[in-house]
Structure formats: structure tokens, C-alpha cells
Amino acid sequence: MSNVFKAIADPTRRQVLALLRERPMSAGDLAAAFDHSKPTMSAHFAVLREAGLIDASRHGKSIIYRLRMSVLEEALMGLAETVGLDLGAAAERKGEIS
Amino acid sequence: MTNGRNILAMALIAVASTEALAIWLAFLVPDRREVWLVAALTMPLLWGGAEVMRRDKDSIRRSVTVAAMLVALPLAVFVARAQGLIGVEDAALGVRLLGIATGLIIAAYGNVIPRKLVCVDPMSPDAGRKQALLRFCGWLFVLAGLANAAIWAMAPVKQAAFWSMVPLAGALIMVAMRFARPAARRQA
After folding, report:
1. Would you call B24 helix, strand, or coil by DSSP?
2. Which pLDDT band holds residue B90 (cuts at 50, 70, 90)?
3. Which of A8, B24, B45, B53 is 20 to 30 A from B71 (CA-CA)?
4. How many whole angstroms separate alpha carbon B85 and alpha carbon B81?
5. Do B114 and A67 touch (CB under 8 A)?
6. Where would I find the H helices in B113-164?
7. Which chain A residues have a beta carbon less than 8 Å from that of B127?
């Protein structure tokens, strides 16, 4: 469960999940929807896969991601979105201060 | 592997608890000993048969855990009543607890419906629609299960038996309507 909290704590990862909620998408299409580099997006995908929130399958040269969230996980994500949870930004600010 | 061992441990604990309660009742209420001993033997026999016949062991063991808990609940109430911990006027307590447990189990099963991706081929053009359908069903059954449990927890038992079915029936009707909708549109 701690992996799930870590996964949904980041707004970029929540946006990835929101996109996958519409339909399965390839890794390339998902990465194109964000301003981050491909290695950064790959890291986000890895966190989401580790948390079991997305499922990856290879089709030819593409990796297709599908949403794999339970109702409870989706509710937690909605709550995180509502309160504007961003632990990544908080960690960055802590780094600037210390 | 660790997860598989955890599931096996849970199933063993649940079934062992049910066995212990059934055997205890066989001593506490000896005039119905055959009933309790049949209850004690049935679950391990069914589990053993399922383990032999099916390959998906984790799924069987999860189901056995839930089934054992459902059987253990009324057995525990019988034991408590036989030991004088529950009065005769609390006769409906077992029914109420079973109703709450059933509602929570429905909610738990609804919770994992959206994760059943086996029916969503990602390359299919209507993968998004199927995924949305799974999510819709999941949410409906979670809410219906929780409502069912809440009604059993709060309403008088005789009324709860009827009214607890209302959210479940509503969920089934809404799922059927959602399934029927694309077919109706295609025919139009």
C-alpha cells in the first residue's frame, strides 16, 4: 500500500493515470502528453508499475499501458487530487531550504 | 512467492478457526453434534477437491478464506450463545453479523473488478469503453455492498432482510442497463 501512496503522491503520475482512465495508451503517446524527458517519464511509469496501478504489455515495438486501479485506489487518487497533494514539490522545497 | 505463502497462511488460519469452532460446538451442544461435525468436515474436503482440480491456487485460497470467515461468523455466535455470553433476546445477532459481512464482501469483490483486465485487449478499438464499464461496475458494487452492510448494521433485522437487497438490486439493474446500451445503439 505504501507503494500506492508514493505513486499517487506525484501530480505527473496522477495525470498519467487520468489519461489511462480514458483508454490504454502507448508509452510514446503518454510521454508526448508531458513536457518531461523520456527517461523521466520512464521512471514515473516504473513507479506506477511497481505500485500495481498500471499494466504494461508489448505489442510489436510499442509498450502499451493499461490502467489497473481498484476502486479504493481510484478513490485515494481522487482524494490526493482534491487536496492537491504534491510530495515531489515538498521534497524539492526542503532541498532548497537545507 | 511471499504473497502466495501469505494467502495460504490466511486460508489455513480461517479454515482452522472454523474447524475449531465447529468441534467446540459439537461438545457444547452435543444433541446437534452431527450438524457441527458435518460443518467441520465439509470445508476441508471442498478445499482439497478444489486444490486438486484447479490450477489457480491463490484464487481458490482467497475464496476459501472468505467462505471460512462467513461460516465461522454464525458458528462464533452459536458458541457465544451456548456459553451464555449472548442472551436469547440477541437471537438475531448472528443474522445481522452475517448480513454486514456479506455486504462488506460484496464491496471487497467490487473493489477489484476494475483490475480484471483479462477482458480488455489494449489494441482493441473499444478498450476504453470496456475499461470504463469495468470501473462503472466496480464502483456500483462497492457502494451497493457498503449500503447493504450499513442497512444490516442499523435497521431492525426483519426490515434489513428486505431493504438490504434494494441497493444490490439497483446495482444489478444499472449494470444490466449499461451493458444493454451499446447493443441498443448498434441496432438503431
Report:
1. helix
2. low
3. B53
4. 6
5. yes
6. 127-154, 157-163
7. 23-24, 66
